[in-house]
Amino acid sequence: MSTQSTHPPKPEAPRLPPGIPSGQRRHTLPASEFRCLTPEDAVSAFEIEREAFISVLGVCPLYLDEIRHFLTLCPELSLGWFEEGCLVAFIIGSLWDKERLMQESLTMHKPGGHIAHLHVLAVHCAFRQQGRGPILLWRYLHHLGSQPAVHRAVLMCEDALVPFYERFGFHAVGPCAITVSSLTFTELHCSLQGHPFLRRNSGC
Questions:
Q1: Which of 22, 17, 47 is nearest to 122 (CA)?
Q2: pLDDT tens-digit readout, 23-44
Q3: What count of other Cβ atoms lies within 10 Å of the Cβ of residue 153?
Q4: How far, in Å, CA of 183 to CA of 196, rounded?
Q5: Given this model, what pLDDT does residue 25 score?
Q6: CA torsion 132→134→140→146, rounded to 10°?
């Protein structure tokens, strides 16, 4: 599930979220940085996710305790985009060891698995409509591709988002066995072994 825009980035300088002065720590932190998340990032991630999903779906893919759980067990399967030290977009994943997603895959991390389950992609409301979701997903797939134990990425999304993920090499395998409240989803898979998209120059 995600709330990202598919529009190209706008040329103006990015705006930091409310409460973050534009000049804060400017001389000690990079203007833009991608890194794996840590448990200390959990609250910031949840605030972004809650705003993005509750208003649209009424539920969150991950709640705060679950975010902390995954960022403690498998931080290497996450990726955050930071602007001057402030989290503005992120993806959180975990390992799975079955061919298809199941209800328990929502909360479990299988260290011996070879499948990366993407739980959530979310972008801060002040940074949407700038093409950040596609850029972050592209970088995340490359990040997964650098981990030899991870052979495939899988996710579930609403039908309307299937074309977006297909641009990145995902293909629909059918209805997902997971339901959340009354919501149903499509399951998508993307092979990370020798995928031509992962060898393409992003220009980012």
A1: 47
A2: 444 445 568 999 999 999 999 9
A3: 26
A4: 33
A5: 45
A6: -130
What is the 8-class DSSP label of residue 23?
T
28-33 long-range contacts, CB within 8 A, separation 24+: 29/82, 29/84, 29/85, 30/82, 30/84, 31/83, 31/84, 32/81, 32/82, 32/83, 33/81, 33/82, 33/85
Q: Rounded distance, CA 189 to CA 152, Å?
A: 7
For 153, how many CA atoms within 13 A lie in the half-sphere containing its CB?
Answer: 29
Q: List strands edge to edge, sheet with 78-83.
A: 32-35, 78-83, 86-96, 115-123, 152-157, 186-191, 171-175
This prediction has a pTM of 0.82
Measured N-to-C along each axis, helices 64-73 and 42-57 cross at an angle, to the nearest 10 degrees, of: 130
In single-letter form, the type of residue at position 201 comes to: N
Per the listing, tokens 């999304």 go with 157
Structure tokens at 167: 């641009």
At 39-77, the pLDDT tens digits run 999 999 999 999 998 877 788 899 999 999 999 999 999
The parts of the chain modelled with pLDDT lower than 70 are 1-30, 195-204
